[in-house]
Design brief:
single chain; about 5% strand; globular
Length: about 325
């Protein structure tokens, strides 16, 4: 364990460049897979790069910039892997809010993290940027889905096993009536739709979506059609593995935009300790190919090796 920490510290101390031991770094990713406590200990024992700030060990901005160059062959994977997950989510959210990127990352952070992890990301955001995530979403997002996004990032959802089936069924009807009555582009501003999607537990929403299909004969995703923000929200809340499988597959498209391709790194790094095994199963079922084979086919070098290690290969 001491040798592992020493090797990582040497690499992250800037003794890299041509001297970076890429095979060692890939090996560490594999050894420490699903062991976030080891990365936490590494951050605590490396004050030159990580500084204790509130509830996280914050990466120093100067080192982040330098290591992106040092570890360029990993396409930022190693820097993101070493970060505290809350800081990582906060930095991703801040980047998209200030670079006019699509809302997708905000939805991912708000809808696929646990209540504690979303709260942690919001705390990290305040520590890093001296604003709340909620106020920045409200200020920077000018589209009509701003209110929905504010509700989603502000949520602290119940995560217990109890679902009131009667309420879930009644709210399926509320959603159905809203979809029928609201004009194009207005549904995302509907107060009841926002209330249901931004406050109910994920188990409750899955029950609601099940009742919706039973009542109307189609999934809610089918009926949302071109309501892209609501559609992505429903997908994230209903089945994160299915949602992330789609995001990954779109990243493999050679004609995809840069932001879409970058999602491959984001998803693999952020889900490696969470639900990557489920994502792999769902991906193979949806697309008829093993995820590890697709990564091996579409990436190369130490970047490929790092991603495959995060997958458990």
């Amino acid at each position: 364990m001491a040798d592992e920490h020493h090797a990582l510290t040497r690499a992250f101390s800037g003794l890299g460049g041509l001297g970076v031991d890429e095979p060692m770094l890939v090996s560490m990713v594999a050894k420490w897979r699903k062991q976030p406590e080891k990365r936490s200990e590494f951050r605590r024992n490396f004050p030159g790069f990580f500084t204790k700030n509130g509830s996280i060990e914050k990466c120093e901005d100067e080192f982040v910039r330098r290591l992106k160059t040092e570890f360029s062959r990993f396409k930022n994977t190693m820097v993101l892997w070493a970060m505290h997950p809350w800081e990582r989510d906060a930095r991703w959210a801040h980047h998209v809010l200030h670079k006019s990127h699509p809302f997708t990352i905000i939805l991912e952070v708000a809808c696929t993290r646990s209540s504690e992890d979303l709260l942690g990301a919001r705390k990290a955001y305040q520590t890093l940027f001296h604003h709340s995530l909620e106020e920045d979403v409200a200020y920077h997002v000018k589209e009509n889905y701003s209110k929905l996004l504010v509700g989603l990032v502000s949520a602290y959802r119940y995560e217990g096993p109890i679902v009131n089936e009667e309420i879930a069924k009644a709210e399926a009807k509320v959603l159905g009536e809203a979809i029928k009555s609201e004009g194009s582009g207005k549904l995302v501003e509907n107060d009841e739709v926002i209330r249901i999607l931004s406050t109910r537990s994920k188990l409750h929403l899955r029950a609601t979506f099940k009742y919706y299909k039973g009542i109307y004969g189609k999934s809610i995703e089918e009926d949302l059609g071109t309501e892209l923000c609501l559609l992505e929200t429903a997908k994230c809340l209903d089945s994160p593995p299915k949602y992330f499988s789609q995001v990954i597959d779109e990243a493999f498209n050679v004609r995809a935009e840069k932001a879409t391709k970058l999602a491959l790194t984001r998803v693999i790094v952020s889900r490696a300790d969470a639900d990557m095994d489920e994502i792999k199963e769902v991906y193979e079922k949806q697309y008829g190919a093993k995820l590890e084979d697709m990564i091996a086919k579409n990436t190369h070098g130490y970047y490929k090796d790092a991603l495959l290690s995060l997958l458990g290969q």
